[in-house]
Specification:
single chain, alpha/beta, Udp-n-acetylmuramoylalanyl-d-glutamate--2,6- Diaminopimelate Ligase, Chain: A, domain 1, UDP N-Acetylglucosamine Acyltransferase, domain 1, 3 domains, twelve-stranded mixed β-sheet, flat
C-alpha cells in the first residue's frame, strides 16, 4: 500500500522537509532502493549512502539536511525505521475459526475471534484468548492459558499448565514447560525429581525459534513483561526473569537464578544456578557467570568479572610473553655474573 511522505511523517510523529505529496511504495536499504522507496539513515555514513541512492525519501535524525532528497525528520531514526517497516509490511491477518484438522478438547474454551490452524491440538480445560493465533501444528497442553492477541508460529509446544500473557509471540520449534533437569543421587543411580511447577510468561514477550523454557520443580518459572528471547536460548526450572530483559542467541540460565529488569545476557553467555543478577546488568557474549552481580554493572570473561578488572587482566596477559622474555634475559645475565 503506497503512502505519501506526509502520511508517513504523521505516523512517525515527524516532519517532512520537501514535497509532502511524494508517493512512497516501499521500504528498502540504501544500496537496494529504487525510485518510490523510502530508506533511513541514523548516522552520517548511512546518510551519505542514502543521498546517493535512488530512494525518493529518507528518514533522518533532526540534524541532517539535503538539497536532493525529501527528508522525514524524526527524533530517533532507528525507532522510526521499525515503525515504518510495520506500515509497509503489516502482519498477515488470519481469519477467525478452527481448521477442520485441529483437535480441540471438549472442555477447552477457544474465543470465537481466535484462529486455530491445521493440525493444532488444544488440551483439556485450555483457554485461548481473543484474537490469539495458533498457526499450524501447535500443541497446547491441558490447563494452558493463552492471552489475547498472542501468536504461536508453527510447531510450538506448550506443556500442561503453561500460561502466556497478551500479545506474546512464540516462534517455531520452541518448547515451553518441559521438565526441568532435576535429579538426586540415590543408591548409585540418578533419581528423577518430579517437576510439578509451571511456566508463567508476561505480556508482550517475544520468544525466538527453538527456545526451551523448563517448568519449575515446585512453583513457576517466570518470564517478565516485555522481555525478548532470541533463538536457541535455554531457561532452566524456577528461573525468574524480570521485565524488558534481552536474552541473546545460545545463552543459558541455570535453575533458580533471578534476573532483574532490563538485564542483557549476550550470545553464548552462561549463568550458573541460584544467583541474583541485578537490574540493568549486561553480561558480555561467551561469559561464564558464577557469582551474584550488583545492579548496573557490566561483566565479562570466564569466570566473569566486572569489565574493568577483566580488561586489566587481558592487557596483562598480552604483555606476559615480553615480560617472560625479559625475565629470562635478566636471569641469564645474573647467572653469568656469579
Amino acid at each position: 500500500m503506497p503512502f505519501t511522505t506526509a502520511e508517513i511523517a504523521q505516523a512517525l510523529q515527524g516532519e517532512v522537509v520537501g514535497d509532502v505529496q511524494v508517493l512512497l511504495n516501499g521500504f528498502a536499504p540504501a544500496d537496494r532502493a529504487k525510485p518510490g522507496d523510502l530508506t533511513f539513515a541514523e548516522n552520517d555514513e548511512y546518510f551519505a549512502l542514502a543521498e546517493k541512492s535512488a530512494a525518493s525519501a529518507i528518514i533522518v535524525n533532526g540534524k541532517h539536511s539535503s538539497k536532493t532528497k525529501v527528508l522525514i525528520r524524526v527524533e530517533n531514526a532507528r525507532v522510526a525505521f521499525a515503525k515504518a517497516l510495520a506500515l509497509f509490511f503489516p502482519e498477515p491477518v488470519l481469519p477467525a475459526g478452527i481448521h477442520a484438522t485441529a483437535v480441540i478438547a471438549k472442555s477447552a474454551h477457544v474465543d470465537p475471534s481466535a484462529h486455530i490452524g491445521p493440525r493444532c491440538v488444544v488440551g483439556e480445560r485450555a483457554r485461548i484468548g481473543a484474537g490469539a493465533v495458533l498457526q499450524a501444528g501447535d500443541f497446547v497442553g491441558d490447563d494452558c492459558k493463552i492471552g489475547a492477541g498472542t501468536v504461536l508460529f508453527p510447531n510450538v509446544t506448550l506443556c500442561p499448565r503453561t500460561e502466556l500473557g497478551q500479545r506474546v509471540r512464540v516462534h517455531s520449534g520452541t518448547v515451553i514447560g518441559s521438565d526441568g533437569f532435576g535429579y538426586v543421587l540415590d543408591a548409585g543411580a540418578h533419581r528423577k525429581v518430579p517437576q510439578v511447577g509451571n511456566v508463567l510468561i508476561g505480556d508482550d514477550v517475544e520468544i525466538g525459534a527453538c527456545v526451551t523454557i523448563d517448568r519449575g520443580a515446585v512453583g513457576p518459572t517466570v518470564i517478565g513483561q516485555g522481555t525478548k528471547i532470541d533463538n536457541l536460548v535455554q531457561v532452566a526450572h524456577n528461573v525468574h526473569i524480570g521485565e524488558h530483559c534481552l536474552l541473546i542467541a545460545q545463552a543459558g540460565i541455570a535453575g533458580s537464578t533471578k534476573l532483574g529488569n532490563f538485564v542483557v545476557i549476550a550470545g553464548q553467555a552462561g549463568i550458573a544456578g541460584h544467583l541474583n543478577i541485578g537490574d540493568r546488568v549486561t553480561v558480555v557474549a561467551q561469559s561464564g557467570v558464577m557469582h551474584n552481580i550488583p545492579p548496573g554493572e557490566k561483566w565479562f570473561g570466564t569466570p566473569a568479572q566486572p569489565d574493568k578488572e577483566t580488561k586489566r587482566q587481558t592487557v596483562a596477559l598480552r604483555l606476559l610473553p615480553a615480560l617472560l622474555k625479559r625475565v629470562a634475559e635478566l636471569e641469564k645475565k645474573a647467572g653469568k655474573g656469579r
